[in-house]
Every structure is written in C-alpha cells, then in structure tokens.
TrEMBL record:
Bilayer disposition of the protein: Multi-pass membrane protein
Principal location: membrane
Membrane-spanning segments: 12-29, 41-69, 90-113, 133-159, 171-191, 215-237, 271-289, 295-315, 322-340, 360-380, 392-414, 447-474
Pfam families per the UniProt record, alphabetical: Na_sulph_symp (PF00939)
One term of GO molecular function: organic anion transmembrane transporter activity
PANTHER family, sorted: SOLUTE CARRIER FAMILY 13 MEMBER, SOLUTE CARRIER FAMILY 13 MEMBER 2
UniProt entry tagged with the keyword Magnesium: no
Cited InterPro entries: SLC13A/DASS
Location of the protein in the cell: Membrane
Keyword Cell division assigned: no
Protein name: Sodium-dependent dicarboxylate transporter SdcS
One GO CC annotation: plasma membrane
Amino acid sequence: MDNLKKNPAFKMGCIVITVILVLSSLVIAPPEGLAPEGWTMLAIVIGAMILFISEAIPLAATCFMIIVAMKYTGVMPWKTIQQTACSSTVFFCMAGFGIGAALQNTNLAAILLRALYRLGKGDSRKMISAVCWLSAIISIFVSDGAAQIVVLAVVTGVVKAFGDPEPGTSRLAGGLMMAITVGAFTGGLFLPCSNSVNVAIMDLSEVISGTPMTFFQWALFGVPCGLILTIFGAFMLPRYFKPEQLSSQQKSDVEKLFSSIPNHFEKKDKWYIAITLVMIVLWFASNWVKKLDTATVAMGGMFLMMLPGVNLLSAKDYKKNFSAMVIVTMLCIFPLASGMSSTGAGEWVVNKIFADSASWNLILIFIMATIAAFLVHCLVPQGSANGALSATVIAPVLVGAGVPVAAAMALVGIQAGTGFLFPIEGTWQYTFGTGHYSFTDCIKGNWPITLVGMLCCVIVIPLLSMVYAGIGLIG
C-alpha cells in the first residue's frame, strides 16, 4: 500500500478523480431530496476523503483545497466559512501546546514513574503496566502527543540505564515504548482537555444537533471508558510482550538513574500542579457557569505558566512545541462539517443509509455506528479530520434514533481519539519510530484493546446513557 501511495501515476489519478467528481456535481442534477448545494458539498467531502486516504497531496494542501472548493462552488459564503473556521477548539489547541511544553520543564513524570517502578519492585511486566498508567495519567491533563513526548524522555533514560538494547532485540523495551502510546490514547479519553479531538467533537455537537455538549457531560462518559481501557491496556500489554526480567545489576543501574531525581516536588512542580488543578475546577464549573469555556480557561492557565516568578514556560519552549499542522486542520475541517450540516447533505446521507433505522434495535444502531466510526478512523488516520467526518455523518444517526447527543459524541470521540490497531498516524511515530516494536507487534498486541474500545461504545455508553438520562444529567 505504501508503495502504491508513492506512485506518481496513482497520486495524479486520485487528484483527477477528485476534480472530476466535484465539477460533475455542478452539472449533474442532484438526487431527489437533496439541494444542489448539498449535492456539491457531498462531492467535496468524498473528494476530501479520497485525498486523505490516498495521501496524493500533503494533508495541508487537502485542507486548503476544501476551503477553496467550498467557496468557488458556492456551497457556503466566504463570510460563513471564516466564521465557522475559527472555533474555540483552535484557541484550545494553541493554549494546549504551551501547557504541554510547560510539563516538559517539570519533574512530575519522572517522580511518578519512579514511584510506580518501586511499587512494582522492578518486575518487568509491572514496569510496562506502570508506563501505560504513567502515560495515561499525564494524557488526562495534556494532549496525547505532549504526554508521549514527556513520558518518552523519561522511559528512554530507563531503557539506556538497563543496557540500551538494539531496537527490536528487547521485549521489555518494546513493551515500554508501546505502552507510552497506548496509555496516551486511553488517558486522552477522560476529559475534553485530554485531547484536542475531544474539544473539536464537543464543539461540533451544537453545529450538528443544536444541543451543546459540556465539559462535565464528556467526563461522564470519558472517565469510565478511559479507565476501563487503561486498566485493560496495562493488563494486556505485558502479557503480549512477555518481557525479559532485569538482572540485579540492571535494577541497580535503573535505581541509580532514579536517585538523581528530586525526592520532593520542586517549586516548578508545585506551580504546575496548582495551575492545572485550578483549570480542571474551572473546566468542570463551566457546566454550570456558562461564561466559562474550555478554551479561555486553557489560555488563562498558559498565561499563568509564563508569568515571572512561575517561569514554567518560555517563548522558545512554546515555539518548539507548536504544531501548525493541527491548527491548519482545525481551521479547514470545521467549515467542512458545518457545510455538511447547513446544506442538508449530512441529513440526506443519514436518511438514505439508515432509512429503516426506526425499526432497528438501538443496540444494533450503536454497533453499526461504532463500526462505521472505526472504519473512518482507519481510512482517515488523522484525529481532527476523522473526528469531524464521523461527527458529521455518524452522530446524527444516533441522535435521530433518540440517543442523547452527549452519548453520540462520546461514541464518536472514542473511535476518533483511539487508533490502537495500526501505527499509521502521526501520534504513533513518537514510539514506533524508535524501532523497539514492529507493525506486527502493534496488531497482535492491540487487537484485544481495540475490541474492548468497541465494546465500550456498544455496551458501556448505552448503559451509562440510560442511567444519566434517568437522573437528568444529560438530555
């Protein structure tokens, strides 16, 4: 597949097909029940998916062409595109880069890993579990990528301490590296602030259904599902890797490394904990205090971290951690989702594909929606893009069947934010790029975790939805 994607003829073919598809929608009459603008919008979405999947042009180019096509085909006025592009998610992401960079300047990850290592008494299997938990805990408060960078720095030191084995020769090193990414994914489900994709999907809930989803409502589903997956991931990975045990000398070398870490929180660690706790309290309070929102609270937190006397974050740190590609994707994907809604294209697709869904069992609808969202993630392995597409097309099916919008968005969020099976998206490259585990390891070690994630969507979320709706926490 990779060789095919690198073939110039294949790339050009995908581009030509996309252009023909969009231009044809302007001259071919739309099917019954779909307005001309919706017909063209649908063609743009399909064309975007072709380019996302084929990687015929860089991701940024595809995102930009979505906006160009939407304006010049007339599916959405330029002013509306501008208004829908700049969502609160963009501001949250910009602040999140700083919060993640500030975490790298603390000792928190190293102190926590040392505590978990000693709790497991140096057992290799427990070391892998400990790293999974460490990555998950940190990912609750910062984005998946930032969590992996922080934990990878600490774990790399540990791997070097027990001998720095050649990539692919140590099952322990492989398990530790994979546990970083798996834990980042599972911890990234807990709260909206845990992953920028979560915030994007939350924002889209009002665009798609007219009903906003709050920080608290996300946590109602994200915390239990994230906890289940973290527990299972920390249990499963050591059993798959079957790591070699450390010798007495290796344990001594690891302990020597940990002895260089401060025994108590330093001033910068305390500042980070205090500011993060304040942000979390305000984020939860936003469920009742409508003036508060996830983005501005994060921006305020980053401001505090940069204050003189706190000095958790410098301009250089922020610039180093900033990812323009995330912002570009957000700015271009939100108008795409809004266009699917405003032109009626999303509703038409839902009505056609799920015309008989009113007679379906609700669990069957959850199963179909989960599989569809999983496939969208496999085909479009970029969190923001696949999250927006799934939220636009799949979530309305659940809402139309009577599922509360918060539950529908939680299902989409789990499948958009976790991609355990194939190391094909950017967030995997932090650890997959080390070479300590293989593509096959990823599939064999993670298919049970993938299955549990899907079971969360078809069993846990429906059950929680009924309970929460019964006591008035969601509507």
